[in-house]
Amino acid sequence: MKILMIGDVVGNPGRKIFKREVKKLKDSGRVDAVIVNAENSAAGSGITAALAKEFFDAGADAITLGDHTWGQKEFAGQIGGVEKLVRPANYPGECPGKGWTLVTMPTFRFAVVNLQGRVFMQPVECPFKTADKVLNEIPKDVPVFIDFHAEATSEKITFGHYVDGRVTAVVGTHTHVQTSDAILLPKGTAYLTDLGMTGPYISSIGRDLVPVTKRFITGMPGRFEVAEGPSVLEGAIIDFDPLTKKASSIETFRIRE
User: Fold this and answer.
1) In this structure, is the dihedral angle defined by the CA atoms of residues 152, 183, 255 and 111, taken in order, positive or negative?
2) At what angle do helices 49-57 and 11-27 cross, to 10 degrees?
3) CA distance 172 to 157
4) Which residues pair with 239 in a beta bridge?
5) Rounded mean pLDDT of 112-138?
6) Coil, helix or strand for 20?
7) Residue 172 — pLDDT band, cuts 50, 70, 90?
8) pLDDT in tens, 41-73
9) Partner of 195 for a Cys bridge, out of 7, 81, 245, 247, CB 3.0 to 4.6 A?
């Protein structure tokens, strides 16, 4: 079976290319299921229940989030009613929502876990210890796919080796720049440091270049709107055996307008 994991969707441009391309990929049989990080899908920050429905209607089978989970204020009251959507599992227990979910397809099932890093990020519980706890909760016969939403490359790589052999795949999100280190780790877990971005690529990781450039030059704060223009859809396809839970390959994926 093949699962496509898609990097951070940014705003309306990212949603548009997702809707156009994912259905074609699934209809052609190129992928069997889709996991998408959508934490930047609402005008560049957060998500809403209505947008989550759009992703599911367009072919997503699970949605992961990250440090912009609460970017849309109303979503805190909506997240509990959105199935197959996960926010970082290492958020405080008092936060609404859940950190992992089980997805049942016609011929197989899989679990999706969302975790957030701590290096150069807001304070959260230890992702390593949280992973241990979550993996003890998930049925042992289920393949597990982790979206590790983190800034530091070293933290992502170390975490990948930490869970190697215990999960089917670990991929990073958050930096919006696809890395070239797709690999099967020594114990069989598929790994990639960052999936990349789904959104406008003539931009600064999805944002309009003018205010971002001004910020770098002057140091003055400003509002960073989502850029316009052609988009890219980036991610990785993981080929795996649902019975053994082992990955046989991981390949980066890109469609550029």
Assistant:
1) negative
2) 30
3) 9
4) 2, 249
5) 97
6) helix
7) very high
8) 999 999 999 999 999 999 999 999 999 999 999
9) 7
Please give the model's pTM, rounded to 2 decimal places. 0.96
Give the pLDDT of residue 66: 97
Q: Is 161 one of the catalytic residues?
A: no
Rounded to whole angstroms, how far apart are CA atoms 122 and 195?
A: 21
In angstroms, the CA 219 to CA 129 distance is: 38
Say what the alpha-carbon torsion angle 156, 158, 159, 161 is, to the nearest 10 degrees: 120
Compute the distance between CA of residue 200 and CA of residue 209 in angstroms, rounded to an integer. Answer: 11
pLDDT category of residue 234 using cuts at 50, 70 and 90:
very high
Tokens 């002057």 found at:
218
Closest listed residue to residue 85, CA positions, set 103, 106, 68, 59 = 103
Residue bearing tokens 């999100």:
173
CA distance 225 to 257: 20
Task: Render pLDDT for 174-211 as a digit per residue (tens, 0 to 9).
Answer: 999 999 999 999 999 999 999 999 999 999 999 999 99
Q: Which helix (H) or strand (E) holds 21?
A: helix 11-27
CB atoms within 10 A of CB 202: 12
Please tell me the number of Cα atoms within 13 Å of 67 on its side-chain side: 16
Residues in Cβ contact with 143 at an 8 Å cutoff, skipping those fewer than 6 apart: 108, 110, 111, 167, 168, 240, 242, 245
Residue 44, SS3 per DSSP: coil
